[in-house]
Specification:
Chain A is built from 6 helices and no strands. By secondary structure, chain A is mainly α. Chain A has a domain at 38-127. Chain B has 13 helices and 2 strands; from the N terminus they run αααααααααααααββ. The chains are: A mainly alpha, B mainly alpha. Chains A and B meet through α1 and α3 of A and α5, α10, β1 and β2 of B.
Chain lengths: 151, 309
């Protein structure tokens, strides 16, 4: 039996799932701490790769100088400097990603709240329908002409 | 003004009705223009410098997610540069990877700004980009616009130096690496333009937040003036050669385009027809949900010519 109210609700939810929900729903599966720390780990990895690329780029652009002066360069000092730069960049990005993903998580939870409420409504509608058909079974009636009898 | 508003409403209705055709068409056009401009400016690799290939690729982009268009455009650029110089192609690739790792990963929706910025440079209206970015995004949108600017200057460098680059002896030469990186790092014009774009995006964003009437218009004008100011200061202090007339003309055109964009695109809620599918225990549902439209027909005004008694 088609239930118009239920179809309307389901349509609204399907549209949400298709639009905003696409981003929000996966977030809803995580605890806040899990979500934020997972995102921070992936940020850390991508920053590490990015920093390696940056150092390579710098190395290439200064290749001639480095080659010519390789015996003069204080390697320990250079490595220390590169490491310091890495740690600074990493910390800065981790801080940024912490803030960004905290806000994202909060926004997702807020947006999902309405969705979960609709889900509850949908459950209630199902229950109503089930109880109606149950009572029909008991009295031996059928749902065929409900629109006339107004049951 | 009323005519404009009615026209806007018409566009909105049209979009609502034909959304399934309009969006792919727009995506196709954007990809097509981007690819054609890349080929026109960098057509060094014969194999892909072919209208048919560009057409097919753009057609593919019309129904794929937008990120794919960005990746394809990046691939085309690197391939063309590779035909000229392996070193420059490598540097370009590394820079693009850096952009992806440092920013794009966090805000993949901003990818179109990276593509649109070099296009706007090619069309001589780069100043519209920060205005548009400020109108619909946040000050952080200046980052993809800056990336787009860097990509434009790489393309320009390769275009201007293609003979020198391809004439260098075969094999990888460290010198070419040094040249391309130095030319980017020492490109004062590029940095001034990026600074101007950041200033403009921030100015537009801050001012459009205010609630006075037409704040968006004031925002566009202020943003545009901020851009001009930074660039002029740059020209005067850093000894950059830049054509004043094209600067002013480009800025004026950008004002106008930003205003048009704001009126027709950013301020309209293009809620659209949705096609969704779902099921319950008994049925499959294929629903077409059409948003209810409030059509504002121009009101009839009765003007009394003779005095009422």
């Amino acid at each position: 039996m088609l239930n118009e109210e239920r179809i309307k609700l389901m349509t609204k939810m399907a549209i949400y799932e298709k639009r905003e929900g696409k981003e929000m729903l996966p977030v809803g599966d995580y605890y806040k701490s899990d979500y934020v720390s997972l995102k921070m780990v992936t940020t850390g990895i991508s920053i590490t790769i990015a920093y390696i690329l940056l150092v390579v780029l710098w190395g290439i652009s200064k290749a001639e100088y480095l080659m010519a002066n390789i015996h003069k360069i204080d390697l320990a000092y250079l490595i220390k400097k590169i490491a310091a730069g890495y740690i600074l960049l990493l910390l800065a990005y981790l801080l940024i990603s912490f803030i960004v993903y905290m806000l994202k998580y909060r926004a997702a939870k807020k947006s999902l709240k309405k969705y979960y409420k609709q889900l509850k409504q949908l459950g209630a509608l199902y229950e109503d329908e089930a109880s109606v058909s149950d009572s029909l079974d008991e009295t031996g009636g059928g749902p065929d002409h409900d629109e006339f009898t107004g049951v | 003004m009323t005519n404009l508003l009615v026209f806007k409403e018409r566009i909105k209705n049209f979009y609502n009705k034909y959304e399934i055709y309009v969006t792919p068409f727009l995506k196709f056009m954007l990809a097509f223009i981007a690819f054609v401009l890349i080929n026109m400016n960098l057509g060094f690799m014969e194999k892909i410098n072919n209208p048919l290939i560009v057409f097919m690729l753009a057609l593919l982009c019309s129904f794929l997610p937008f990120g794919i268009t960005a990746v394809m455009a990046a691939g085309l650029i690197v391939a063309h540069i590779y035909a000229v110089s392996l070193e420059v192609a490598l540097v370009t690739l590394i820079l693009m990877l850096l952009m992806f790792l440092l920013y794009y990963r966090f805000a993949p929706k901003d990818g179109y700004l990276i593509i649109l910025t070099p296009i706007s440079f090619a069309l001589n209206i780069p100043y519209v980009m920060p205005l548009a970015a400020g109108l619909m995004g946040t000050p952080i949108s200046a980052v993809p616009v800056a990336f787009g600017t860097v990509i434009y200057y790489i393309i320009r460098y390769v275009k201007d130096n293609s003979t020198a680059l391809s004439n260098s002896e075969s094999g990888v030469s460290v010198e070419n690496f040094t040249y391309i990186i130095d030319s980017l790092v020492n490109n004062k014009t590029m940095f001034i333009i990026i600074a101007a774009f950041v200033a403009a995006t921030t100015a537009v964003y801050v001012i459009r937040q205010f609630s006075f009437d037409h704040s968006w218009f004031v925002a566009i004008v202020t943003g545009g003036l901020a851009e001009l100011l930074v660039i002029i200061v740059g020209i005067l202090t850093l000894d950059i050669d830049m054509n004043f007339t094209s600067l002013i003309l480009g800025a004026a055109a950008s004002f106008a385009i930003a205003a048009v964009l704001r009126f027709f695109i950013f301020s309209v809620d293009y809620t659209r027809t949705e096609y969704v599918q779902f099921e319950d225990d008994e049925y499959y549902y294929y629903v077409k949900a059409v948003p209810k439209l409030v059509i504002t027909t121009p009101e009839k005004k009765v003007k009394h010519i003779n005095k009422q008694k």
